[in-house]
From TrEMBL:
Gene3D superfamilies: Transthyretin/hydroxyisourate hydrolase domain. It holds the Pfam family Transthyretin. Keywords: Hydrolase. Residues 11-110 form the Transthyretin/hydroxyisourate hydrolase domain. The keyword Transcription does not apply. It comes from Candidatus Dormiibacter inghamiae. GO terms for biological process: purine nucleobase metabolic process. The keyword Hydrolase applies. This is Hydroxyisourate hydrolase. GO terms for molecular function: hydrolase activity. InterPro entries: Transthyretin/HIU_hydrolase_d, Transthyretin/HIU_hydrolase_sf.
């Protein structure tokens, strides 16, 4: 257990649809490392996934794939799939929110 009280490295996300002013429900997100899938989940009604990995993680490089095509459906949109390459350098909890809209994407390291 590290100083924050977290065991190992963990990763969560929150997808917020800024065009609607609410969490983006049912967005499919996959976590990969070294070409292998570590977990796949869909955001809850509030746009959250509390833990992306289905197995223990350690510091390292990870790929997060956010599939937006199904979320936007027939609504005109630019982004269908977004890939984030992350370097999780410490054994701690990481929270990586995404702000999305039909024609925008922004992300940052949250708390």
């Amino acid at each position: 257990m590290d100083q924050s009280g977290t065991t190992g490295t963990t990763l969560s996300t929150h997808v917020l649809d800024v065009s609607r002013g609410e969490g983006a429900a049912n967005v499919e997100i996959e976590l990969r490392a070294g070409g292998s899938s570590l977990g796949r989940a869909r955001t809850d009604a509030g746009g959250r996934i509390a833990q992306l990995s289905e197995q223990p993680m350690s510091p390292g490089r990870y790929t997060v794939i956010v599939r937006l095509d199904g979320y936007f459906g027939s609504l005109p949109h630019l982004l269908t799939e977004v890939t984030l390459e992350l370097d999780l350098s410490e054994s701690r909890h990481y929270h990586v929110p995404l702000l999305i809209g039909p024609y925008l994407l922004s992300t940052y390291r949250g708390t």
